[in-house]
Amino acid sequence: MRDFGDEPVDEAAMRRAAGVALAVSDAPVRFGWLRDPARRRAYLDAIGAEHEPPELVVVLGDGSPGAAAAVQALLVALAAEGLGAHWTAAATAAGIDVPPGLLPLGSVAVGIPAEPLRPLPPDDPAAGLLEW
Fold it and tell me: DSSP letters along 49-95, please?
């Protein structure tokens, strides 16, 4: 999901999605919501992003595998709220206040989808499901 409309993102929906995502991981993970447009633009410039999403969440963690579960949960929770989201592994500490012991792991662009969300048809399990 990379095409977002111009509508503002509901703040309560963002908070609910973050709360759900933080509940699934016991790894030290934090979500940094870059709300200030100037800081968001500076961050996006620093990672070489071409487009500016309506909202941006920087994922911070210690590099442990549990952070991946939190990111996955955030993407699912945002979709459940009717929001579009896109993960990118590009990250920097420039312009953000990273708590000690954490590193920027990537970011999630968030917005109202330009087109309605619709379920993807499943792939053929034979293409990637190994059974022993």
Answer: -SS--SEEEEEEE-S-THHHHHHHHHHHHHHHTT-EEEEE-----TT
Closest to 15 measured CA to CA, from 118, 116, 110? 110
The reported pTM is: 0.86
Confidence of residue 1 (pLDDT cuts 50, 70, 90): low
pLDDT tens-place string over residues 85-132: 999 998 888 888 899 999 999 999 999 998 887 777 888 888 888 888
CATH number for the domain harbouring residue 108 = 3.40.109.10
Token couple for 102: 């954490």
Tell me, yes or no, whether 129 lies in a domain. no
Task: List all residues 6 or more positions away from 116 whose beta carbon is below 8 Å from its beta carbon.
Answer: none
Q: Which domain holds residue 65?
A: 11-115
- Residue 103 to residue 108: CA distance in whole angstroms: 15
